[in-house]
Design goal:
By secondary structure, this protein is of the alpha/beta class. Helix content is about 55%, strand content about 20%. The chain has one domain (about 5-160): HUPs (Rossmann fold, 3-Layer(aba) Sandwich). It contains six helices and five strands, in the order βαβααβαβαβα. The protein has a five-stranded parallel β-sheet with strand order 3-2-1-4-5, sandwiched between helices. Helix 1 runs parallel beside helix 6.
């Protein structure tokens, strides 16, 4: 009998909720011996929209995109260090495009059986943009999607 879950994709946004989802994915990988890919998406789709509506000029858009890439690398490195701490191998990817499209592509490319998303944020500005991507992922995913809302992820992570 093959394993129910062999590949997990976890979406990283830098929010506390997405870091909790990453910790949860590491715990799952450790418990069930599955592979994990952490994906951070630079939302160039929204940046293009801001440029088209003249909210950003070209130079501002480019600078902001570079800043988002640097943040993404930093968050992915942090997730890598969390996995190393628990002896779990993790693959990380920095992608550009629409968040939901790129997360779904990553899951399909790996034939993932599970996508992990962080629970919703308290701050409204983060919650709105992330919840749109979450809804699209939930609607279009070809595999199961788990919203991590576990409040004690840190305690579980420390004990593992």
């Amino acid at each position: 009998m093959s394993a129910l879950i062999t590949d997990i994709v976890v979406a990283i946004s830098g929010s506390d909720a997405s870091i909790n989802a990453a910790k949860y994915s590491i715990l799952l990988a450790k418990s069930y011996n599955c592979r994990v890919t952490a994906v951070y998406v630079v939302d160039t789709a929204t940046l293009r929209q801001l440029l088209l509506t003249k909210i950003f000029i070209e130079e501002e858009s480019h600078e902001y995109e570079e800043s988002l890439k640097a943040n993404g690398q930093r968050y992915l490195q942090y997730v890598r260090s969390l996995a190393e701490e628990k002896g779990v191998e993790i693959h990380t990817e920095l992608r550009s495009g629409a968040i939901y499209t790129e997360v779904l592509k990553a899951a399909e490319e790996r034939n993932a059986q599970l996508i992990l998303l962080g629970g919703w944020e308290i701050r409204r500005d983060q919650r709105d943009s992330i919840s749109v991507a979450h809804r699209e992922i939930l609607h279009h995913a070809r595999c199961s999607v788990l919203i991590v809302k576990e409040r004690d992820v840190d305690a579980l992570f420390k004990r593992a």
